[in-house]
Structure formats: C-alpha cells, structure tokens
C-alpha cells in the first residue's frame, strides 16, 4: 500500500516523464538488453542489431503500460490483468525479467532526472514498480 506522500512522488516523476515516454522506454530496453543480453531471447525480431524504431515503439508501449499503472495505482490487479495474461500465458516471459526491468528503469530515471529524482522518489518508485511486478507475475501461479 502506498502512502499519500509516495503517491505524490510517483505522480511528480510521471509528470517529468510525460511527453518523453518513447525515449525513456527505448533507453530502458536498450539498457536491459545491454546489461542482461539473455532478455533479448523474448524479442526474436530484434536480431543482433537493435533497431531504434523498434526500441522506440516497444519503449512507448512499455511506458504506456506504466502510465496505466500510475493512473490506476489503487487497482493495479484489474488494470494490469490483460498485460499479466499476455506475459504469463502467451509470451511466457520469465518472471525474474520484471525485476531486471525495474532496475534498469530506476537507472534511466536517475540518469535523466538527476537531482529531481530524490531518494524519496526513488524509494516510492521502487515500491510502486515492485507492486506492478507482483501483479504481473501473479498469473504464473
């Protein structure tokens, strides 16, 4: 459960990201694929060369899903149910990859937002994204 202050931090960061979702998302995926190359196994169309258009497109979709989670942070389970079904039943993504994605997203946020991304914001986003990951992995059971 997020406190009122944590919710405010999440919204403050989301407001800073607004309008730059594709760029943040593309950097997130590029960082994930670079640091954890085994995660590329779920993206056979990417091949050996990472195409900027594909990264921007998937980055946009990823951050759109985060935006839904931000908008419905009080009801993540219902809001993310279709996404959880997709990843668990159709794509069969290893659930540990969600934690790797969270780590990379935190680095992207910190590198872009720098001093604006306070310790309190980092903690709030870590808690929030961990909640998102829990919801996305519930369908695996």
TrEMBL record:
Keywords of the record: Heme, Iron, Metal-binding, Oxygen transport, Transport
Pfam families associated with the record: Globin
Database matches in InterPro entries: Globin, Globin-like_sf, Globin/Proto, Hemoglobin_a-typ, Hemoglobin_oxygen_transport
GO BP: hydrogen peroxide catabolic process
All copies of domain Globin, residue ranges: 1-141
Keyword Heme found: yes
Domain of life: Eukaryota
SUPFAM superfamilies: Globin-like
GO CC aspect terms: blood microparticle; haptoglobin-hemoglobin complex; hemoglobin complex
GO molecular function, one term: heme binding
PANTHER family (alphabetical): HEMOGLOBIN FAMILY MEMBER, HEMOGLOBIN SUBUNIT MU
Family note: Belongs to the globin family.
Name of the protein in question: Hemoglobin subunit mu
Lineage summary: Eukaryota, Metazoa, Chordata, Craniata, Vertebrata
Gene transcribed to yield this protein: HBM
């Amino acid at each position: 459960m997020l406190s009122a202050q944590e919710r405010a931090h999440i919204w403050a960061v989301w407001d800073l990201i607004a309008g730059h979702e594709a760029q943040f998302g593309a950097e997130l995926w590029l960082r994930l694929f670079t640091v954890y190359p085994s995660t590329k196994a779920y993206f056979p169309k990417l091949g050996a060369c990472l195409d900027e258009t594909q990264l921007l497109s998937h980055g946009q979709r990823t951050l759109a899903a985060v935006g839904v989670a931000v908008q419905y942070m009080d009801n993540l389970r219902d809001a993310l149910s279709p996404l959880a079904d997709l990843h668990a039943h159709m794509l069969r993504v290893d659930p540990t990859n969600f934690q790797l994605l969270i780590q990379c997203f935190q680095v992207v946020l910190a590198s872009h937002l720098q001093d604006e991304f306070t310790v309190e914001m980092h903690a709030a986003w870590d808690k929030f994204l961990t909640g998102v990951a829990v919801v996305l992995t519930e369908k695996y059971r």
